[in-house]
Amino acid sequence: MKNSGKLKTTTLDIALIGMMVAVIEVCKVALMGLPNIELTTFWIIMFTLFFGRKIIFVIPVFILIEGCIFGMQIWWVMYLYAWPLLAMIAWIFRKQESVWFWSILSAIFGLFFGFLCAIPYVVIGAVDGGLVSGLYAGFTWWIAGIPYDLLHCVGNFVLMLVLHYPIKGAMKKVNRLLKG
Amino acid sequence: MTENKKLNKKIIGGIVALVALIAIFVGLFIAFRPKPAEGSKAITIVVVNDAKESNTYEVKTDAEYLKQAMEEAEGLTFECDGTGMLMTVNGVTADWNVNQSYWALYVNDDYGQFGISEQPIYDGEAFRIEYTVSEF
Known about the structure:
The complex is a heterodimer. Chain A is mainly alpha-helical. Chain A has helices at 11-30, 40-51, 55-70, 74-92, 99-117, 119-129, 131-144, 146-178.
């Protein structure tokens, strides 16, 4: 999978970044009714693989739009590090071609999403009642959400397994068109 | 062929690792999940029978009304008539038609305004159900 690997931004890049954000946002809103079934993980991985460092611009815009639409609550703080972390992991493993690898990675990310999101609760608890209290608050919050993390895990796995090849084919076509 | 085998092994290894992780998460959830809390309201129900003997029941409940809390009280038995009026408590029957007796309900020592089905309950309240013979 190739990517530009350049941070230089052209008009085309700006349009592309806008399209990527729109795709993520539309899919997110469309699937909002389903608990923890989302395509954000899928798209961030695919966009990182195909458009490389452009994802650096996509994620902040996506997070900002989410905050504007739904309000900048505690979940929004979680987005600030969870999605960039995913993009970073995808970037590290960008040479992997196997759909199984990406499905398993997506599943693991879904499984640990609650764990990642517990971090602000640790901080809040620690500020209020010390480190032990913070760790307890984060731990109980994480444990209570594990059934949803399991759903997230299965959803991410299946979506990546089903959509990886067709989207990969479509993106290759887009890349060819972009390169003229 | 060997490449394929290696790839298959990696895939199987990855899936096994994922299943193991899921199992660990399920185990953690079962071990540490939030347990259903005992009832959030603690109330006391005292039954005073026709011999002026009293039995006390401490109940922790989420019930909204006294009747449900009484059903949850261990050792307390009662029956109501068709209108919901308390007739028999712990085997003692109060019958107005026989001796003008009835079960009086006191809420925090004040005479209750409702039947047990309509009597709301709040944390810390004390209820007394007392066998009473009318003096009229």
